[in-house]
Amino acid sequence: MTNQNQACTKSDIAGVSFSIHPMSNAFITIIKNALKEADTSKVHMKTDDVTTTVRGKLVHVFDVTKAIFLHAAKTGEHVAFQATYSLGCPGDSQGDAFMEVDDVPLNADSVKDIKQQVAAKFSLYPLGGGDYMDVIYAQIEAMKEYVSVSPAHYSTRLDGEAFEIFQGLEKVFKATADSGSSHTVMTVSISANSPSHKVEGSDA
Amino acid sequence: MTNQNQACTKSDIAGVSFSIHPMSNAFITIIKNALKEADTSKVHMKTDDVTTTVRGKLVHVFDVTKAIFLHAAKTGEHVAFQATYSLGCPGDSQGDAFMEVDDVPLNADSVKDIKQQVAAKFSLYPLGGGDYMDVIYAQIEAMKEYVSVSPAHYSTRLDGEAFEIFQGLEKVFKATADSGSSHTVMTVSISANSPSHKVEGSDA
């Protein structure tokens, strides 16, 4: 078992701790179906009573979380997704990391046609270095290639299709790690089908 | 308006971006009542369709989020709480920060008798410095004074009373900032009344 003591990861293992919250009495069914519909055979996944942890190659960690979110959101219920992605955390175990698999994402075809407008916020945290704000600014700019981007307190707001938002998140997370950040953390909140969604992104 | 571009905070303004998710068809009522029952008159608070932002003195930021969580959880519904606390983010605006108020927490008396067993995970991220892992290890040790602590992937698990967990989170967050971290971020996930709660903390 790994933790912040023995702590997170050798540089090539990616991981995420996430939770998905359908605001519905049917939450158990929605979560279970979403977990079942996603093909998780190229990652290590463990669900407990607080979060679900997925570990493996970066491409599969994003592929699996994107698929689970989209399968839950397509029910039409108000679904919230919260995730902390991590790469390079010092001390992650090498075990159970599924690093021997190929790079072909298993869920790309099954979710690419699910249309789902969402509102999201993300924050990037490159740890251990002094120039981390420059890295953050550059990646916020890069995100604009994918979706609508606007300022928010302590984060950056994204409005658009969920599929494209996940593409953008994967890209900026990978670019941050590739740029030399030895330990990269990214928090993401996504809301789908909220009764309070308004066109807020455009007035910021 | 502030964001990661103009970005987060002058060192004495604390802030949090959080969301609370009741897994129930009555989620709107539960959220609205919890926000109403908490006394938020010593902080700046703004709710949008993704998260709620609270800014002000550290003591009040924790007082208000603890109260909102406890008022939602006491309904007995399965409630999830996700928060990213922040202090010292370079570029936070000085406006609307409610720094002129005194240090007396407004919600302490009204929530201190709400008994609510929860499972939680937290991660501390002191940014911009090279020895951040030592700071993290020290604060995980400090947390043991408050509640049961056990390892988890990319975070540390906490089991106990919600009131005490929030006391501990406030203490370690403040200690991290006081120890010299110029920009401190802490992510927290808390789950109350989950149908899948088990005694997991004891077997880690």
TrEMBL record, chains A, B:
Residues 13-92, 118-196 form the Thiamin/hydroxymethyl pyrimidine-binding YkoF putative domain. GO terms for molecular function: thiamine binding. Thiamine binds at I20, T52. Gene3D superfamilies: 3.30.70.930. The lineage of its organism: Bacteria, Bacillati, Bacillota, Bacilli, Bacillales. This is Thiamine-binding protein. SUPFAM superfamilies: MTH1187/YkoF-like. It holds the Pfam family Ykof.
